[in-house]
Specification:
mainly alpha, N-utilizing Substance Protein B Homolog, Chain A, 7 helices, 72% helix, 0% strand, disordered C terminus
Length: 149
């Protein structure tokens, strides 16, 4: 298991804890990550991923709500909801290629969630990825009005 995947696992566990307990346990979550027996680079990545996902939670939830058709985010399984949040934060951050974030989210769903979750996560994140990639495309330049004269 590579360093980035181990960091994602730690960040997911932290997100789930925060989802259940709320922000009041943020220091305990940070301590949980620091207490894991991972190299310093993995711990730093986990903290960075967790911080980004928490900071972008509202925006990520808005994006997810548009693409998780017929699902209220509050009714999703906690693990699935946080896998999705983590992946959206990574996709939006621009440091990780969106396809890698999607693949890693599916892998986390296979590890931590139900048998149906990887398919659901894939469907939602594929739509999210398309939206994010479309928003990054440069807009077509307007035609020069002098050409029409």
């Amino acid at each position: 298991m590579n360093r980035r995947h181990r960091a994602r696992r730690l960040a997911l566990q932290g997100l789930c804890c925060l989802d259940v307990q709320g922000g009041r346990v943020a220091d305990l979550v940070a301590q949980f990550i620091d207490d894991s027996k991972e190299p310093a680079a993995t711990l730093a990545s986990a903290h960075k991923l967790l911080t980004a996902a928490v900071a972008q939670r509202e925006e990520s939830d808005g994006i997810l709500a548009r693409h998780a058709h017929h699902w209220d985010l509050s009714r999703l399984a906690m693990v699935d909801r946080n896998i999705l949040r983590l992946a959206v934060a990574e996709m939006r951050g621009g440091q990780t290629p969106p396809k890698v974030a999607l693949s890693e989210a599916i892998r986390l769903a296979q590890e931590f969630s139900s048998a149906e979750s990887p398919r659901f996560v894939n469907g939602v994140l594929d739509a999210v990825m398309k939206e994010i990639l479309a928003s990054r495309r440069p807009a077509a330049e307007p035609a020069d009005s002098t050409d029409e004269e």
